[in-house]
Amino acid sequence: SEIAKKFYAKMAAAQAAGGGDPGAGEQVYANNCANCHALKGKGGKIGPDLSGIAARGVKFIEDSILRPAKTITARFETWVVTDKSGRKSIGLKSEDTATEVEITKATGEKVRIAKAEIKEIEQDKGASVMPDNLNEAMTVKDLQDVLAYMMLQKG
Fold it and tell me: Which of 34, 92, 139, 155 lies most in the core, judged by the most C-beta atoms within 10 Å?
């Protein structure tokens, strides 16, 4: 039956995540992830859409949460733009035209900088726009729960 399939999928996800509860993980996701990430078209656009993330495996997901700069999805690299006055804008390069660059900061704020005003633009390979202190904001149970929830995201 469909109910049995859903139950077994939840059990498999929980087991893969070290005993996490996918139902509780949905709430952890809503509180910590949904402002920046989308699932099935709903949520933020600062980080990658996580629909189908289960295919990457629980270890990849855990690493992505605990060490977000380790593996950064293409188009979600962190850029540092320094203008001629020395002001730095750090975030995702959301637009790059012939005349200007748009940076989306972790807060969602968009900053447009004219190319004529840019002194330097470089990718920060050691940084992610995603907070690197989520391990301080979540308990071990929160992590297990959100991992279990993510393991249900099969696309």
Answer: 92
Beta strands in 9-149 (DSSP E): 38-39, 42-43, 78-83, 88-96, 100-104, 110-114, 118-123
> H or E stretch including 12?
helix 2-16
Residue 148: Cβ-neighbour burial (10 angstroms; 0-12, 13-18, 19+): buried
pLDDT tens digits for range 54-109: 999 999 999 999 889 888 888 899 999 999 999 999 999 999 999 999 999 988 89
Cα separation of 73 and 63, whole Å?
A: 13
Determine if the pTM surpasses 0.85. no
Cβ-count burial of 61 within 10 angstroms (0-12 exposed, 13-18 middle, 19+ buried)? buried
Cα separation, 115 vs 133, in Å, equals 33
Mean pLDDT of the chain: 89
d(C-alpha 45, C-alpha 108), whole Å: 9
Residue 120's pLDDT band, with cuts at 50, 70 and 90, is very high
- Give me the DSSP letters along 29-56: HHHHTTTT-EETTEE-SSS---TTGGGG
